[in-house]
Amino acid sequence: MHSSIVGTGAYLPAQLVTNAELARRIDTSDEWVRSRTGIRQRYIAAPDEQTSDLALAASREALTIAGIAPADLDLIVVATTTPDMIFPSTACILQAKLGASGGAAFDVQAVCSGFVYALAMADLMIKSGAIRNALVVGAEIYSRILDWNDRGTCVLFGDGAGAVVLAPSDTPGILSSHLHADGRYRDILAVPGTVANGKIQGTPFLHMDGGAVFKFAVKVLAEVAQEALSANDLPSSAIDWLIPHQANIRIMEATMKKLALPIERMVSTVAEHANTSAASIPLALDIAVRDGRIRAGHYVLLAGVGGGFTWGSVLLRWH
Ligand code: UT7
Predict the structure, then answer these.
(1) What would the pLDDT profile of 1-10 be if each residue is shown by its tens digit?
(2) Can you tell me which atom of ligand 1 is nearest the CA of 211?
(3) Secondary structure of 122-191 as H, E, C letters
(4) pLDDT digits over 64-114, tens only?
(5) What domains are defined for the chain?
(6) Which of 78, 132, 148, 219 is most buried, by CB atoms within 10 Å?
């Protein structure tokens, strides 16, 4: 038994904010943000939009492409660091908004690696025979956990959602997944706050040691890609498309260089979307599938890295 992606979907909020617009509010410039990160713009959710709304729009697209009804989903996993509320899970809220009930639904919290973690879980559950159809979503509203006066972080992130439907197949599909974490690095990227006794405890805004995150990301993205290639006995040249976490074009380019892969084989959306955390990989996947870059038989390697620290890969052969 194998699993295979049978539909993809994406959603970006309507409000587009350029670097130039940010430069009117804080001490930054389009030139700084572009040259240090590759980011040109980001999308920001409307005040009445919740993460589950973004997830819903992306999920509907993926389900339509897959030709699978919400009632036929045995599992919904939402990877998010910005859930609608502390509980219930965004996955349960999404399930209700889709008009489904009865299947399993839960959130995965692995920050920017969340989608890779969630996809790996769903694949293993299908392979084990425990379930048939799964909806796997990465959805985030980072604009609500950013300090918009901190130029070191607020220029880097955006909001959005990407979704895939995973179904059983006779041939793979998903070839392998490898997941890792090292909690010793928990402080270099964190929102170190919570709600207790009716008050916010600690800080509810994202804090980051940009340089440390940069170095860690370049190291583990290349390592986890090599791990996937070794496990499948493939040379790096076999990879048709690498979809790394979309945080900074310099991190992504350095990863391609370490793998000796031409830059043309990387899917990049960081210029248009900025860093959408768990949504970044499924958003990029959806775009490359829809514009015809990813075709049947292609090897596609998804490589995530994020707070925790967490990192991981999913290698798949497009159907
Ligand atoms: O999902 C993972 C999430 N996080 C990341 O991926 C972030 C990884 N790290 C990075 O992408 C980079 O480290 C940054 C983009 C955050 C920073 O780039 P950098 O080339 O490492 O710049 P830097 O930290 O060395 O900062 C250089 C200067 C500093 O000024 P001084 O101290 O040299 O005078 C900063 O204060 O740039 C300043 N700076 C800015 N200037 C204009 C920091 N942010 C900005 C800004 N606009 N937005």
Answers:
(1) 899 999 999 9
(2) 13
(3) HHHHHHCCCCCCEEEEEEEEHHHCCCCCCHHHHCCECEEEEEEEEEEECCCCEEEEEEEECHHHHHHEEC
(4) 999 999 999 999 999 999 999 999 999 999 999 999 999 999 999 999 999
(5) 2-171 (3.40.47.10), 175-317 (3.40.47.10)
(6) 78
